[in-house]
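The passage that follows is intended for readers who have already worked through the single-chain material. We present the inputs for a multi-component assembly, then the predicted structure in tokenized form, and finally a short commentary. You are encouraged to pause after the input and sketch how you expect the pieces to fit together before reading on.
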Amino acid sequence: MSIIRCENLCRVFTLADGSRLQALKNVNIDIEEGKLTILKGRSGSGKTTLLNLLGGLDRPDSGKVFLDEREIQDLKGMERVRMRRENIGFVFQSVALIPTMNARENVEYSLRLAGIGKGRKERTLECLAAVGLSERETHFPEEMSGGEQQRVAVARAMAHKPKVIFADEPTGALDTATGLQVIKLLKDMIAKEHITVVMTTHDPGIMQFGDAGYELEDGEIIGKW
Amino acid sequence: MLRFLAQKIKNRKWLMLCLVMGNVLLISVLCCITMYSDGIKSRILGRRMEVKLSEAGEYPLKLSMNAVLTVVDEKRHTGDVFETADGYAGEFLKDGSTVKESVRYFTISSNARTLIKRNGKELILPLNLGYMSGLSDHILITSGKGFEADGEGALPVIVSEKFLAVNKLVLGEVLSLDKIKEEDGSGLRVRIVGSFTCSDRTDIYWVNSPAYYDSTMFLADDIFIDRFVDFKAPHYAMRGTWHILFDYSDLSQKSIKNILKITKNVVATAEQESALTVKENYISELEAFITEDNKTAETLMILQAPILILLLAFIVMVSRQTLLLEQGEIAVLKSRGISKIRIISLYFVQSLMIGLMSVIPGILLGALLCEVLGSANAFLEFVGRTPLRIKIFDPEVILDAVLGVLGAMTATVLPVVFLSDNTMVSQRSKKKKRRLNMPVWQKFGLDLVILAVGFYGQHSFAGHEEELAERVLKGESLDPLLYFSSALFILGAGLVATRLIHFIPKIVFLLTGKVLPPALYASYTGVTRSASEQNYIMVFLILTISLGIFNAETARTINGNDENNVRFSAGADMILTEKWETDRAMQSEENEKEYIEPDLRRFENIENVESVARVYNTTVKAAYGNYTFTPSLTAIDTEEFGKTANMPEGYLDEHFYHKLNKLSAKANGVILSNGFRDSLGYKEGDSFIYSVDGVQVKGIICGFTEYFPGRPVYVTSKDWYGKEYVSYNLYIIANLAYIRTITGVRPYDVWISVKDSTEPVYAYIEENGIKTVSIKDATQTLAEHKNEALLQGTNGMLTIGFLIVLIICVIGFLIYWILSIKHRTLQFGVLRAMGLSMGGILGMLINEQFFVTVLSIAAGVFVGKYTSKLFIPLIQVAYTRADAILPLHIITDVNDTVRILIVAGFMVLMCIAVLGFFISRTGISQALKLGEDG
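Having made your guess, compare it with the prediction:
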């Protein structure tokens, strides 16, 4: 069953010199629930743009995005914010934890945003345990290694039990071993929490862990498996 | 490397512009003091000298030396004294710009008999042969010819018109001087070829008028010098006079010092050599001026110090922010193996470029600021005065500019030295340390130490105001330590306040953390946990705001107290003593004059006049036990007096009107000065017996007063041994109507209260031919005070300081926040991706602004006010005047604080608006991308 899909998605950027760049051209994809779907492509192929549109961070110029069969591309202000808060989690390439919050607070923060008050502490600890960082709960981002930070980011993305987690090059800044650890975490999470994960990567070594995948080039889907 | 630099400057043009601005301001503030003290010096000295010239009628800066050259024989003569004097005159002339006119006048005299044969008879006349340097340029030949005439076998001489008349000689006559020999042994022959008078009556060359020279025959300069001037082997006894007249319109500190030095040498020589006498009319005056001028320069220098420090802090802050943005680039450079020294030198070259770029605009702005100083009339108040003559590219000014550049360069490069250690790897570990550790000053309690030292400084000066004032009146400037303590106090208090402010969000967060909405939660974790990041801007804000307030209150207090004192000691804005006509017809038998009272209401209708009062002053006799004394009595119409007299509020135990009302309630009531109560034991309600014009009067004491307009509190008198002592001034205030029943109509003073200018009153007096005995005008005294270098410079400096503080406060603040937000772009992107709304982000920022900015501004106001309270009473001593009566009151103008708060409020709102705009314009995906790039 598909949880997220898009129809004829187009996105055009106007560059600084006034020229226009067609970042996505009529993209149609369909992502199945409970799977790890990989968006693959060289840098500049449009995968991050696609991810941002699917996650509601950006609006398409034309085309539609459905989350659970609900159109989301035209949602306004707070509705959009609420949609993200409740249904979506993000993991970014650069370690994007809040530097002034410790590991526990960073995870807890997504629960706060989703308006979950009850059982917040338990869920936070559970998520931290899931990524194997129970002992690091009071550490601040700058006191942790890149891999540890990314694991906290995964814990944060899953804490409020979103329907989909979008991960943009989550292993990009990590060495291979640490990167694999993070992928393994995401896989475990899918198994345990029935979350759908969509991630982008250009690392062929990671492709094999995906349940499904699309390949992009110059804003178009050129392959699917 | 240079290309990299150029690229860098292009990319960060706004920050670079801020750096340039900091440099320009720094240079201009440094230069303007030098330019100002130079410019104001010549203006003030020039004005004083003109007053002296018009009052004394004598040229104000004149040195006259007289030397006698006696010749006994070839070995024994006083040629060396002559030579010395001539040498001194030459020394003055070396500094060409300072001498306006110099005259050398030599005569061969000593009993020279001049023979003249007329009608076969020999006449003997006591005439001298001489020369006066440059004579031919200053004369008008009235008859005959000038030196160019042919002497027909004799030397041509010219004489004054008076000479001809006194000596009964005519043009063309040949005289033989038998004491002055020609080579063949005969007497020197001269022919009178012309007579002269001065070409211009105002020519200062004529220290003595031409008529003074009624026995001197003048030879041309070259002939006289050629034939007779030989100091080593003089043949003739001679008299020499040198007049040096200095140009007072353009004297620099250096030339004043030079003049004083040579003059003192001259005087010292004259004391040892009886053959030399000296007359000068300026040493004491110039010395006093130099002392005063040093005091002004020192005071201004001390006043500008905090501004300089703030400007340096501003430059450090901008430089730091630039560096934070460039950390990545530095890391790249380092990873390519470029050494720390090279990176530092890169920034060094950059700051040198910025510094050099700023020199010319800095000096020009300095000149502008200098004119601002010169036209300052009060705090934030300017008047049009003749512009100061400023030497813009004087070596001293250039030196200041160079100092400014060096200071700014240090401030720019210093943060690089500390931050360039960061490479991509070490950046992280360094950060860890920074967050975990408090800043050094907090950790070691340096803030408390600095504050304590400032307090101690204040404490050690407080209570010694009188001693300080005495020293100031002797011409010393105030101890720089005092200003230093005030600066330390502000800094210490600012740091401590910063430390304390951090507790507030911490406490709030601790109490409410669990239930806070997500936006505020994120905001609080930011505010409470990145304290050290905010310290800099907080301290900066507190310092600027408190310094602004301190500057404003210092200026207001200095001006206000001076004004209060002048107005109070004068009594009223204007006091007019009219010459009264006496009525001869009504002259009584006892020869008492019967006066005709002029119409007082004439004055009430003059433009600008607000009210007029009659004030009669006299001395009365009173007895205390067996001791008789003569206090002064002032008789007034209470209502008019109250309206007219200047009694500033806040100095009396009850309102002045209240006192006057009590007096008016009893016809024979009197108000006595406090001395009656404190040293003679009188009480309110007692009767007080005194006699006016020999008539005994019983007054009822309605009250006592410590201050009364126009009356000093203490008087200095001499005891039997001539030793001075200070005692209470004993005076009585009574009702004029009552006193008149005893004395009859007597001439009184007219006290006038005037709004703005007193000009219309003078015009009225002139137009209506009112005869006055005297006019005292407090507004003129005030205007004179405002023209003084110290007060004018202080007002200007404090005003400039205040304005600079506001400017750099706003710019520094905006830069800090805009960069800080740019820095956190990624973080905001993440928060928004996670589901924080735009409003939430703005809320976060506003909350942050409240704790960082609003609280700092509040602390700044508090620190400024408190520092003012502690230090202004001490600093004000520097402006002590011998005639001040009223004690110091700190005077504040709420508008100043309001101005600061308006600017600060505007700044915060603008900041939030700019940030809001910036954030809302940047989409989330863009923010994330930007953040990743950064």
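Commentary: Chain B has 28 helices and 27 strands. Chain B touches chain A at residues 428, 431-432, 435, 518, 521-522, 525-526, 528-530, 826-827, 829-831, 833-838, 923-925, 928-929, 931-932 (CB under 8 Å). How closely did your sketch match?
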